[in-house]
Write a structure and sequence with these properties.
elongated, 11 strands, about 325 residues, about 35% helix, alpha+beta, four-stranded antiparallel sheet
């Protein structure tokens, strides 16, 4: 393969760049622009400089935008890094979604991501921080979606030298992603329709992190002792006879009940329980597994009142038993 003299000169410039140790002022610039810590900045800078395939601006291109970008705090190198970040994130956003995008994963924070903030800055994805016990004692873990996992893998693939890839562990937990812009997701409701979007001074409940929150249980969770064991309650909980509309019960694996969307007037009977904490809810979501998702519904507490609540809707429709 023939390599032009210009290409060789560009590689030589990049090679010289990589040999230079990042200094205080440029470290400050990288930290301020990309929200990274002073401890991780030198490795990110050196890794970027060593990437021989990275996109570089020509002198004419830089001269055209130089004044504007310097006013925003960039120099030539940091703006080239910003371009690389933007291209990586654009590639991620344009990928087709898969059935695993809503799956949940966990990995131990360390290298190349010291915390969830550095993960957000580098890859542009969010994560939930969880503290736990690792092989060497206390450790921090990041909980992410399947879509975020793929974004991290793409980012690692694009780096040179390539940083170590975290070990991802899949969590079989019911996804919960309640919109604050509409009633999505709701049992038996096509929440993409305009009438279900938020109006001024309106909010949909329950909110994502609203506790306590009513849940409608059906199937095996209608047994109080099962609920007690699931969330480690000291006493047997009191479940309230209740019902909801907009769904029907199907069978899964000839053993389990599976709630799916149904006609607006279709009624499902069960029992309601007020979940007091996010921790208790998390236990329930692990029990129901990723075969179900948490959705909003209206719960009619028998002889008491109607409340806004949540329930578990089955999502693996191709695995339902044939009636």
């Amino acid at each position: 393969m023939d390599i032009s003299w210009a290409a060789l000169e560009e590689m030589a410039v990049i090679s010289v760049d990589y040999q230079e140790e990042p200094m205080g002022e440029e470290i400050d610039r990288w930290c301020n622009l990309f929200d990274i810590s002073r401890s991780e900045a030198p490795e990110i800078i050196k890794g970027f400089r060593m990437d021989l395939d990275r996109r570089r601006l020509t002198n004419d291109q830089w001269d055209t935008i130089k004044d504007d970008k310097q006013a925003e705090g960039y120099d030539r190198e940091t703006y080239e890094y910003q371009i690389q970040l933007s291209l990586t994130r654009s590639k991620i956003s344009k990928r087709p979604k898969t059935c695993d995008d809503k799956a949940l994963f966990v990995f131990k924070l360390g290298s190349p991501f010291a915390d969830v903030e550095s993960l957000q800055a580098a890859v542009g994805v969010s994560a939930t921080l969880k503290r736990g016990i690792g092989e060497e004692g206390d450790a921090n873990f990041a909980h992410i979606t399947g879509a975020a996992k793929r974004a991290i893998e793409d980012w690692i693939e694009s780096q040179s030298p390539r940083p170590p890839q975290p070990t991802f562990i899949r969590l079989s937990q019911s996804p919960k992603d309640l919109s604050d812009m509409s009633c999505h997701p709701s049992l038996g409701v096509d929440s993409s329709l305009p009438q279900y979007r938020l109006q001024d001074n309106q909010c949909h409940t329950p909110a994502q992190m609203e506790y306590p929150v009513w849940y409608l249980f059906y199937g095996t969770l209608m047994d109080p002792e099962t609920v007690q064991k699931c969330i480690s309650l000291p006493t047997t909980p009191k479940l309230v006879p209740a019902s909801t509309k907009g769904g029907i019960l199907r069978s899964w694996g000839r053993k389990y009940k599976a709630l799916v969307d149904g006609p607006a007037d279709a009624r499902v009977d069960g029992f309601a329980y007020k979940v007091e904490t996010a921790e208790h809810e998390e236990y329930l979501r692990f029990r129901e597994t990723e075969a179900y998702e948490v959705v909003r519904c209206r719960i009619n507490l028998e002889g008491v009142e109607e409340v806004q609540g949540l329930t578990f809707r089955f999502i693996k429709h191709d695995e339902l038993d044939v009636d």
